[in-house]
Design goal:
With 244 residues, the chain is α/β, with parallel strands linked by helices. The protein has nine helices and eleven strands. The protein has a single domain, classed as Rossmann fold (3-Layer(aba) Sandwich), CATH 3.40.50. Helix 2 packs across helix 7.
Length: 244
């Protein structure tokens, strides 16, 4: 059931070109049990192929649990996914419960889209490889990153949060189909992602200015780690911070 990094690449090698949605919330991102169930059923409803890096859900709110999230035992992954989910998605789903080689996955020909928490490194790796995004921020600066992906750069779509701060399964289904199924919105996102890929950003720092200036964004960099972003004058210098 659970797959190692090498096994998930082997699975991707067997999938059609431009057909798989990659789902991960980063090294330490976790969801509540209820939210993880909604995500699971939304993916099932979408009818799309997907590769999901699954972590044990948190007891509280969605968060970054870098020191306690850990990697999962693939033999127990079914205990924190909804009953019947694995059976219903068999044949079009791979559940990755260990470390996943994200850069290698994103550059794979089978990749069609990336459901991401919008950490800065993930955002740039997706842009570098021309992969459209579903932006699902969990906390802090990721919310601004997600807004940039959707409203400013136009290389993805941001999920809409419903009642009780929950992203319902219907919304997961909607955004998955929006970036995976042929249509005007998908074509627009794909074209913009393709254009940005041509800039060929080499790292989180190299030619980052080129990437943002190209799209009328203004970046002020501080050292090699932290950045402040002003998006077309809509936000003040003090209320935007983009980190990793």
């Amino acid at each position: 059931m659970g797959q190692t990094g090498s096994e998930c690449i082997a699975w991707l090698n067997q999938q059609p070109s431009n057909s798989v949605l990659f789902v991960t919330f980063g090294s330490g991102g976790t969801l509540t049990i209820k939210q993880q169930n909604e995500l699971a059923w939304g993916l099932e409803l979408s009818g799309q192929r997907f590769l999901w890096v699954v972590r044990a859900p948190s007891n509280g709110s969605a968060s970054a649990s870098f020191f306690n999230a850990g990697y999962n035992d693939g033999n127990n992954v079914g205990s924190y996914l909804p009953k019947g989910f694995v059976e219903k998605t068999q044949g079009r789903c791979k559940l990755v419960t260990s470390w996943a080689p994200q850069v290698e996955i994103l550059r794979h020909p089978a990749m069609a889209a990336f459901l991401t928490h919008c950490g800065w490194n993930s955002l740039l790796e997706s842009v570098t490889n021309g992969v459209p995004m579903i932006a699902w921020p969990l906390y802090a600066e990721q919310r601004m990153n997600a807004m940039m992906v959707d409203e400013e750069i136009g290389v993805g779509v941001k999920v809409k949060v419903g009642e009780g701060a929950l992203v319902p399964r219907e919304e997961v289904e909607r955004v998955a189909k929006m970036v995976m199924v042929e249509g005007q919105k998908r074509n627009s996102i794909k074209q913009k992602a393709k254009e940005l890929k041509q800039i060929k950003v080499q790292s989180t720092h190299c030619r980052l200015m080129d990437l943002l200036i190209t799209h009328d964004l203004h970046l002020l960099s501080y050292g090699n780690i932290n950045f402040k972003l002003l998006i077309r004058g809509k936000y003040s210098r003090d209320n935007i911070f983009i980190g990793r």
